[in-house]
Specification:
By secondary structure, this protein is α/β, with parallel strands linked by helices. It has 15 helices and 15 strands. The chain folds into 2 domains: about 130 residues, Aspartate Aminotransferase, domain 1; about 260 residues, Type I PLP-dependent aspartate aminotransferase-like (Major domain) (Aspartate Aminotransferase, domain 2), CATH 3.40.640. The strands form 4 sheets. The protein has a 7-stranded mixed sheet with strand order 4-12-11-10-7-5-6, sandwiched between helices. A 3-stranded antiparallel sheet has the order 1-2-3, with no helix packed on it. Bound molecules: pyridoxal-5'-phosphate.
């Protein structure tokens, strides 16, 4: 290890890079960690290592540099790298779409590709609005969303996200939308408000958007399958689309392959990204029903063509990596491991809650565990991240919520280690 080289390279980073969601000045005190290698649950820098306890922004499910997925990427890049998905198609996309149609809730029969969670959500918003225009209902253009939800950082996604910390600065750029109270506080009240809104304004509403079961960026807030079922019931009753944003909940994260499965519902649109490729390449899809697809299928002169696309739509390498991810998931009893992780999260977080006066509201779903922490002191939550690194954990609190978002492969031994360290971290944070 040569600390001088390490330091020089971090200085180079700080001279040219701008890291997302970060106040760059903070790096004067706590420079970024330079990761040079990753394997399984671990990220290695030259002089230390860290558990990836937030799955690299919620996308890693099968561990880093998974050999089977890496091999699929290597093989693909030697035959076909990337082509435009306008006039061309390719086998990895055909295989992936067939698979996705099979494994997503019944009725989601069509796949529209993009390249990140926000764009998959933008596609759903634009397609919903366009559908109603194609059906002769031009007034149906408003989007209904739940306070506390998050759908990405593009302008459209921000316009219907209820996490003001991320988007209040950009309000002048956003379109008007309709906000329903945070369901994680009171599901019955949120449903009541949704019903009133849909009853009064359904002729102006294109879609209701939802993060099913888990509102991630809003603070890892959990809602029930029944709530989702009722939202589906109301949206059908009032003839508005349901856009289910499973960007963060898809592929086993909540203990179900998709959160929608927990409530046995089929949304009109389902957005997927992140774990679709095990986080090894950027790729996203918007799944939709045949009924929506049919509304666009017409003679060209009718003007029903959907104009939205990205250069890397259905990137060949991304599709090959996604196919390998889904095959690997298929060949493994992931549900068993997720249930074991979930049970453990439940027990351990409740124990921590009993042990530390500053903790409250432990909550878990699948491989996600969260607890609120009340720390005093200047930028206490920011410092918690730094203490986390000293103890080999990657912790990025959301407001005053401390959470773990664990890869599905996390073992019981790793959990022992993670919870020992978490207890040490909280003790250190309390003692300043
Ligand atoms: C539920 C949800 N939707 C959309 C997004 C946006 O995805 P991306 O960051 O890939 O644009 C996120 C990101 O965390 C998310 O959690």
């Amino acid at each position: 290890m040569d600390l001088k080289i390490q330091t020089n390279q971090i200085l180079d980073d700080l001279a040219v890079n701008w890291h997302p969601f970060m106040q760059m000045k903070d790096f004067e005190t706590y420079p970024p960690k330079r990761i040079i290698r990753a394997k399984g649950l671990k990220l290695f820098s030259e002089d230390s290592w860290y558990y990836d306890t937030i799955s690299s922004w919620w996308c890693n499910i099968l561990g880093h540099c998974h050999p089977k997925i890496t091999k699929a990427l290597q093989e693909q890049i030697e035959t076909l790298d990337h082509i435009m998905f306008g006039n061309f198609t390719h086998d990895p996309a055909i295989e992936l779409s067939k698979k996705l149609v099979t494994i997503t809730p019944k009725g989601l029969d069509r796949v529209y590709y993009s390249d990140n969670g926000s764009t998959s959500f933008e596609v759903a918003l634009k397609m919903s609005l366009h559908y109603w225009v194609n059906m002769g209902q031009k007034n149906k253009s408003k989007i209904v969303f739940f306070n506390g939800s998050y759908h990405g950082d593009t302008i459209g996604a921000m316009s219907v996200s209820g996490v003001s910390q991320y988007n209040q600065m950009f309000r002048p750029l956003m379109f008007d939308s309709v906000q329903i109270p945070d369901p994680s506080m009171d599901e019955a009240h949120a449903l009541e408000q949704l019903e009133v809104t849909l009853h009064q304004y359904s002729e102006e509403i294109a879609a209701v958007v939802i993060e099913p079961l888990l509102m991630g960026a809003g603070g890892m807030k959990i809602t029930s399958p029944d709530f989702l079922k009722n939202v589906r019931y109301l949206t059908r009753k009032h003839h508005v689309h349901l856009i289910s944003d499973e960007v963060a909940t898809g592929f086993g994260r909540t203990g179900h392959l998709f959160a929608s499965n927990a409530a046995n519902v089929t949304p009109d649109f389902m957005c997927l990204s992140k774990a679709l490729t095990n986080g090894q390449l950027p790729l996203a899809v918007t799944m939709l029903t045949d009924e929506i697809y049919r509304a666009f299928y017409a003679d060209f002169e009718e003007g029903k063509t959907f104009y939205h696309g990205h250069t890397f739509t259905a990137n060949t390498l991304g599709c090959a990596v996604a196919n390998a991810t889904l095959t690997t998931l298929d060949e493994w009893d992931w549900k068993r491991n997720v249930d074991a992780i979930h049970q453990r999260l439940d027990v351990e977080l409740n124990q921590l809650n009993d042990q530390f006066y500053c903790l409250s509201n432990p909550r878990t779903i699948g491989t996600v565990g969260a607890i609120d922490i009340d720390l005093s002191g200047h930028r206490a939550m920011f410092k918690l991240t730094q203490i986390g690194f000293e103890h080999h954990l990657t912790i990025r609190p959301l407001g005053n919520t401390l959470y773990l978002y664990l890869p599905l492969i996390t073992s019981q031994d790793e959990l022992n280690d993670i919870f020992n360290q978490l207890s040490n971290i909280i003790t250190k944070a309390i003692n300043g």
